[in-house]
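Need tokens for this chain, all 66 residues.
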Amino acid sequence: MAFTYTNSKGNTYVLHSRQTTLKNGTQQTIYFFAKEAKEGALDAVPPGYEVAESKNGLPVLKKVQK
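Here are the structure tokens for all 66 residues:
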């Protein structure tokens, strides 16, 4: 079951991740929310991150402050 988040406006988003290659050749994992579950959907928020909402209601992942 994919991790879903419902924002303050009542819209539901699904958390996804994808491996991408940067211009310098290093690999980086990016996290993003989409309205539908697609390839790369995650079951839970990654350790060290929390879900926050931007000013316009879109969910984003933020690193947890220690």
